[in-house]
Amino acid sequence: MSASDVELPREPVQRLVAPIQRFLHVEAMGGVVLLAAAVIALIAANTGLADAFLGFWKVQLGFGVGDFRVDHTLKHWVSDGLMALFFFVVGLEVKRELVAGELQSLRGAALPLAGALGGMVVPAAIYLAMLGDHPASRGWGIPMATDIAFVVGCMALLGKRAPARLRVFLLSLAIADDIGAILVIAIGYTDQLNLAALALGGAGLGVVVGLRRLGVRVLGVYVVIGVGIWLAFHESGVHATIAGVILGLLTPAQSWVSDSRMSQIIASARDVWRGDGWEGFGSRRGLLQRVSAAAREALSPLERLENALHPWSAFLVMPVFALANAGVAFEASLVRDPVALAVMAGLVVGKPLGIVGFCAVAVRLGFARLPDGVGWAAIAGGGCLAGIGFTMSLFIAGLALDESVLDAAKVGVLCASLVSGALGMFVLAKLAPGDSEGA
């Protein structure tokens, strides 16, 4: 019997838990739950529930120690606090792609990097060109974003009708896009800095680096320090979610116990378990603790945390964010508003135009090549799907715009995401199935 055939004992409760676990680990389901949350928010904001629903997110919550007090609305805590977990997971994903994914080599990263750059520059340029000196021109970062949860969901619905390598390309492009969005948030939407608080946050990051080098692997220690770093960034003027990204990037991607050492520990434990040297080892409890610790540390902290936190991010943080931010009362005037039109043009037109155009230049100049089995029609379809901005676009809109134009921007994001998703799926299903045009 092979090791893969040996399973742990099963309990009756697992009949209930196992389907839930499978659902939470199907990546495409995150988009389904996110869509459901957005629909609920829209229904609530456009019915008799509107006052109660929108008022709920304005409830004030806070805490204080001595003279220091933090007091904000529930919506603010979701956007600045809960979303820090989402951005921490984004930081982990970026680190993984840089260390072991498509972005680890310049040759492999060239095409998604080119696409991501075009998918940010062209939409922002279209937005700015349409708004000119309008006060809402500060929202140029809104159409630069891509919501990978919805993109993955659309690709899952398409199944084999979309080239397999296109998914890898889009995931890598989305990661590069996230890096750009993080820089936009950190640089473009930071107004006033509290240097003392920022220095305190930097000192906290230094402590994290120091503890890593000392070999401290107790998760609780890093959680406590991480909360302190988040609070310092929150008070510094730099958006607090940036702390989550930095902590994600600082997470080790290498395991403490190598594969060869793990094999030796298992072999040694097997010999002891069979009676060879049992008396000299000590106790069975000690043996099991040693094997358990080795098994845990055979996975890198990055892999363990990403696997543990991704379901929480996809099925709790993002849907709650959608509930708090997607609720907007639809009016015909909002759809025609210049801000909404600029957002829609940037996402629906600018995203595919920028991605295809910059990828074409990179391929023509010899810096990159198309993935095997992926032609230009598939790249165009993927570029349309990348116009689904949703989560990150709504997030940036909340940072960039005041209440007078925020609803128009939200309507633009929602309409553009719907159109981009439908257009991308149509192109991939009808124009690019089995696409195999050469690189």
Provide a descriptive summary of the structure in words:
This protein is an all-alpha fold. Among the domains are: 28-82 and 106-188 and 313-431, Na+/H+ antiporter like domain (Na+/H+ antiporter like fold), CATH 1.20.1530; 259-294, no CATH class. It is built from 19 helices and two strands. The protein has helices at residues 14-24, 29-45, 50-56, 74-100, 106-131, 148-158, 164-188, 195-214, 219-236, 241-250, 259-273, 278-281, 284-297, 301-325, 332-335, 338-364, 376-385, 390-400, 403-431, and strands at residues 60-65, 68-73. It has a two-stranded antiparallel ribbon. A hairpin with a 2-residue loop joins strand 1 (60-65) and strand 2. Helix 5 packs antiparallel against helix 16. The mean pLDDT is 85.
Summarize the structure.
With 439 residues, this protein is mainly α.
CATH architecture of the domain at 28-82 and 106-188 and 313-431: Up-down Bundle
Number of helices: 19
Strand content: under 5%
Succession of helices and strands: HHHEEHHHHHHHHHHHHHHHH
Corresponding CATH superfamily of the domain at 28-82 and 106-188 and 313-431: Na+/H+ antiporter like domain
CATH topology of the domain at 28-82 and 106-188 and 313-431: Na+/H+ antiporter like fold
User: Order of strands in the sheet with the most strands?
Assistant: 1-2
* Gyration radius, in Å: 24 Å
3D shape: globular
Largest sheet: 2 strands, antiparallel
Question: What's the CATH class label of the domain at 28-82 and 106-188 and 313-431?
Answer: Mainly Alpha
Low-confidence stretches: none
User: What is the distance, rounded to the nearest whole angstrom, between the alpha carbons of the first and last residues?
Assistant: 45 Å
Helical amount: over 70%
- Mean pLDDT score: 85
SS-based class: mainly alpha
Number of strands: 2
